[in-house]
Amino acid sequence: MANGKQANENGIFSIRNIRPGDYTLFAWVPGFIGDYRHEAIITICSGCNIEMGDVLYEPPRDGPTLWEIGIPDRSAAEFYVPDPDPKYINRLFVNHPDRFRQYGLWDRYTELYPDGDLVYKIGVSDYRKDWFFAQVVRYTGTAYSISFVLCDLLFS
């Protein structure tokens, strides 16, 4: 993504209306962990057009993924989002893909887990139903747990 815009199918993007100054190019790819950071400082001046050439992002990876919760896309949309408290409903986010932006949703965590914190079981739990969209803090502290059996993951 570039300045909130995606590259086209050929990987070409442009960023318009930038104030003159020195910048660093950062980017990310939905579905991949990590960020791209262009090493050189880019100096923007009025009316300039800078061709970056090929910009190659190689996601960091040291081994196979044993498990993951959700999709690395910088969004909370795929996780469990409770219905909002009726007194805080923002009608802009009713039936909206970004419904997790409703005010006060974090407060629902304590209502949903009154006696203990969330425990997510790899291979059993479903992040769409069992992983709260935000990691909130209770007044007495919060302990999210992720449970898995390593042998099952390594040898299956």
TrEMBL record:
Q: What is the species listed in this Swiss-Prot or TrEMBL entry? A: Hibiscus syriacus (Rose of Sharon)
Task: Tell me yes or no: is Signal among this UniProt entry's keywords.
Answer: yes
Where does the record place the Rhamnogalacturonan lyase domain? Answer: 6-50, 65-150
In terms of superkingdom, the source organism counts as Eukaryota
Instruction: Print the keywords alphabetically.
Output: Signal
Q: What is this protein called?
A: Rhamnogalacturonan lyase domain-containing protein
Gene Ontology MF term list:
carbohydrate binding
